[in-house]
């Protein structure tokens, strides 16, 4: 805990057998109270590795629900456990768990309700091996999103995020997509609800075992991201209404 706030790390997993242990072992248990592993019907031994590591809360999907569907289960379980701060950490070891301290202290001390680990602040993305086309797409999408949503984030596409329970209860993330665009929908909902978002510089790693999506899925994601930002813009100026911005 920090300031009597219960901290839970959620691990949305799909075929993370080879990297789960390394990720788990770097979680700072001096402040982290609970770990939740949600397995999206992996075809490897992700669940067995989680059990061997002694993870108490393991949620197994009977069908593959997708990246967004996995996160919904993560946050629902974290709130069920009465968590005060929830950190979403990919178990593929692409993001270092060593930033959990910094991200959680920002929330626990009442500075911000949401903190992102940004690969774009500094040189973390390219230095860590992010493909150049993904870097360029990241920058262009982020520019468009900042213009449409009136914000100044360095990136909207990081998978390393920490939230207060207050934020998770104040947005209806369960109506969001089960696909990768879920992440962007959440950020749009958070901004629409009036919250500000902090960012910390995050090194990242690209390697064979790290999760990634192919060019076709990336293109679909990019179109979806722009759609979310346009929906935000249109609702803000009052010419349309979208269910993702309704209060839960």
TrEMBL record:
Domain Glycosyltransferase 2-like: 8-171
Keyword Calcium among record annotations: no
EC number annotated for this UniProt entry: 2.4.2.53
InterPro entries for this protein: Glyco_trans_2-like, Glycosyltransferase_2, Nucleotide-diphossugar_trans
Keywords annotated in UniProt: Glycosyltransferase, Transferase
GO function term, MF aspect, one: undecaprenyl-phosphate 4-deoxy-4-formamido-L-arabinose transferase activity
Domain of life: Bacteria
CDD domains named among the record's database cross-references: DPM_DPG-synthase_like (cd04179)
Pfam families associated with the record: Glycos_transf_2 (PF00535)
SUPFAM superfamilies in the cross-refs: Nucleotide-diphospho-sugar transferases
Coiled-coil portions: none
Xref: PANTHER family: RFBJ PROTEIN, UNDECAPRENYL-PHOSPHATE 4-DEOXY-4-FORMAMIDO-L-ARABINOSE TRANSFERASE-RELATED
Record's protein name: Undecaprenyl-phosphate 4-deoxy-4-formamido-L-arabinose transferase
Source organism of the structure: Salinivirga cyanobacteriivorans
